[in-house]
Specification:
mainly alpha; globular; 2 domains; Leucine-rich Repeat Variant
Length: about 230
Amino acid sequence: MSVTGAQRAEELLGQLRSLADPVNVAGMAHFGISAEGTLGVSVAQVRVMARALKREAGRGGGAWRHEVALALWESGVHEARMLAGIIDDPTLVTPQQMEQQVADLDSWDLCDGLMINLYRCTPYAYETAITWTGRAEEFVKRAGFVLMATLAVHEKAWTDERFLALLPIIEREATDPRTMVKKAVNWALRQIGKRSVTLLPSALALAERLSASGDATARWIGKDAARELRLR
């Protein structure tokens, strides 16, 4: 590319800042999205920019997109980081990058987008999900369970046994009362149960067991998941 990744990232940051909307920032905060470093640019606008950049890079432009993505992430701008998660090349993402970026997370939308758009496509996704679900940091733990949920949806070729092995982890962490964690635990349980007729009975049995728990968080997770899984 004639323009370096760092230069293109600066241009994209300028474009994002030109789209800034303080009113949207307030609205996003209402839905639990961090206002720190947030410009108020809509997800739809970010996705339009991502599609344009991928066309610009063309085939074989993964290394350049990776360079742009890293520079965007380092800016600390919320929407720039969201854009980075969409355009980065998962084949070039390292475990070290994943650890560095997950430590920066402070908002559920950025967390979920990064897991769904990028990290699930890396060869480290399954093992990383297991590791992060055992961590204490709120958004790191959430990231682990979001990875579980999205892998259950997208990795059609994986064996059900891989997901069956995740149910004890869900049960172990079902008493974490933090909103960002418990909602992700619930999400992972529901998606694993909906993955196949083979997994459904085990996931539903866990949901019903949690429903009868003496812990309020576990009961909420179990009842909500069981309500959906019984309809399958």
